[in-house]
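If you are new to this repository, start here. Below is one unmodified record pulled from the training split, so you can see the exact layout before writing a loader.
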Amino acid sequence: MTVHVLPASEQTVRVGVIDRSYAPILEIEDGDELVLETWGLWGNAVAPGMTFDDIVELKKVHAGKGPHSLTGPVAVRGARAGMLLRVDILDLEPGPYGFNLITPPPHSRGLLTEEFPHGEIRHFRLDTRRMETELVPGIRMPLRPFLGIMGVAPADDETHISSIPGEFGGNIDCPALVAGTTLFLPVWADQALFYAGDAHAMQGCGEVNQTALETTMERAHLRLSLARERYLHRPHAITRDYLVTMGFHTDLRQAAVQAVGDMVTWLSHDRGLTRSDAYVLCSLQADLMITQAVNGNNGVHACLSKQLFAFGE
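And here is the target side for that same chain:
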């Protein structure tokens, strides 16, 4: 097992698009570890003190693309379409600064867009020693860093805007994917071609104003390995406490259908439950969470407690 260090630079980062034609910047072996760095949005261009007018100019420069800075892709030797890429999230260390945006209409997908007609940027200093930050005096919020984007090359040859998640992962924005979690990504192309970015210091389920506490990741320590034969065709995860399945669709109900259907399949395959038993268990014990409702494809994740089983990986 080798540990590879991958800093963020002009040579290792692409902004705003995901495309399976991109050549890998690094090749690693099955089971190797990766310590990578991620930039903030728009090529790390947002700095403390910037105004929303500065953000408008940044958006003009990157028109037609997503805002996300993606480190990669990384090739995993031996990965083939039909496999699963297992991503063990070993450690995450965010940077010292973050921000949140309220974007006004007509360019916002936030849930209360019409109520907030003026753009706004909030800057935050992150106390990474105490792992907290302050919203306003008297309201301190605990940091819970995760990578909003982890993904592999899509199945098709199209260029994808980085904002929209799919079966390949990408802009999942699932706040459950903290250190100590294992994410499984279906592989659609040889070598998998893994990338990561869109670091968040924290995010509520839903990401209701369209941005989280956007930051950088100074150190994302991951292990990439090839997992069991694929029988789920969307990303899914095992956290310290839960099994997590995910759905992505323009229709929120259909995203929920995908998440529950995958959980039923997972329980049937790994626990030997009938699909009927698994469906009942989901209705009695699973929680459906709105991962995000602002990225084109809505996200829903289903969480089921591991304490219900002697459930090993």
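Two things worth knowing about this chain: The first strand starts at residue 3 and ends at 6. The first helix runs from residue 41 to 44.
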